[in-house]
Each structure stands twice: as structure tokens, then as C-alpha cells.
Prior knowledge:
Elements: H1 38-52, H2 55-69, H3 86-91, H4 93-111, H5 116-133, H6 139-155, H7 162-185
Helix pairs in contact: 1-4, 1-7, 2-4, 2-6, 4-5, 5-7, 6-7
Amino acid sequence: MSRRESPPPPSPPPQLLGVRSGEVERDDRPERAEPLSDAEREIIQNTWGHVYKNCEDVGVSVLIRFFINFPSAKQYFSQFEDMEDPEEMERSSQLRHHACRVMNAINTVVENLHDPEKVSSVLALVGKAHAIKHKVEPMYFKILSGVILEVFAEDFPEFFPTEVQMVWTKLMGAVYWHVTGAYTDVGWLQVSSSAV
């Protein structure tokens, strides 16, 4: 596999530090994702119902915030990489389509929380596609997870008190663990800053 040479992305916010550009956390990676308890799965499924009712709008809000706060992420999306204006992004049918894909992937995970093998399989496909076909640096999944949690908490404060946010953080950690595992499985190569 060839290395992708691209400009380094901006530094992630402090709460998302821990992964550097092009790097899958091999040394710090736990042997497995921390499993969710039955009560945690129920919390996630109950709160997800409120979010998923507005799936397209929430997904668009997530992607707009992601691209505004981390514009280097747009390099992987030729159809809207030159968009700067949030209103233009909101009107973009391509962005809306990708927002729905992201939200539907989360929906598949949430609907299958009772089946860890299915969740692992779905996230492995997502990870492999983003590693091999799209060559997206894995740290963007960690950043996107943080943006998703921020938007959920802000848009649905009545359903996302601190305790619920902690459960969702645990889920997003598991999602990141599975996705980056797929990167490791396909032999993702670290891009050193000196290569750029």
C-alpha cells in the first residue's frame, strides 16, 4: 500500500488528543473495546431514538461542525472540499448524502448492540473502506466521534445529561477501537511529518 502524502491536519482539541496524524494507537490500544453493560445499551438505544428521528439534519450539523472546525478533513471529499460557507454546505446534496450514511452507520451499530459480532463486522467494513479506498487518516474518526458527541449533547440536552454522555463516550471509544483495528488489519502505514 502506498503512503498518502497530504498536509498535516490541525491539532485536535485537548479532549481528543492521543492520536497523531497517520497513526493507529498500536502501543496504547487495549486488547479489546470495553463492553457495554445491558443498562448502557438500553441508555444508548433510548437516546438514539430521539436523535435518529432527525437523522439527516443532525448528521448535516455534525459534518458542518467537523469541516468548519477541522477543514483539513475536507481533503477526502472532492465534491465539497472547496466549500467554506456553512450555509453552502447545508444545501449540498452530496454533504447531506454523506451525513445520512454516517448516521445510518451509527444506527446499524446501535440497532445491533446486542450482537457484538455484527457490530465488529460493520465497523471493520467502515474502517477498511476508509483506509484502503478513501485513505482517511484514522485520527479523523476520533475527532469526528468528539464532534458527534458535542452535537448530540447540544441539540438534545434533555436526553444527554452528563451520565448519558459518558455512556455515549464509551460507545464512541468502542467504535474507534473497531475502526482502527481494521486499519491495523490492512497494514495502514504511518505517514511521518518528515514525508510531507
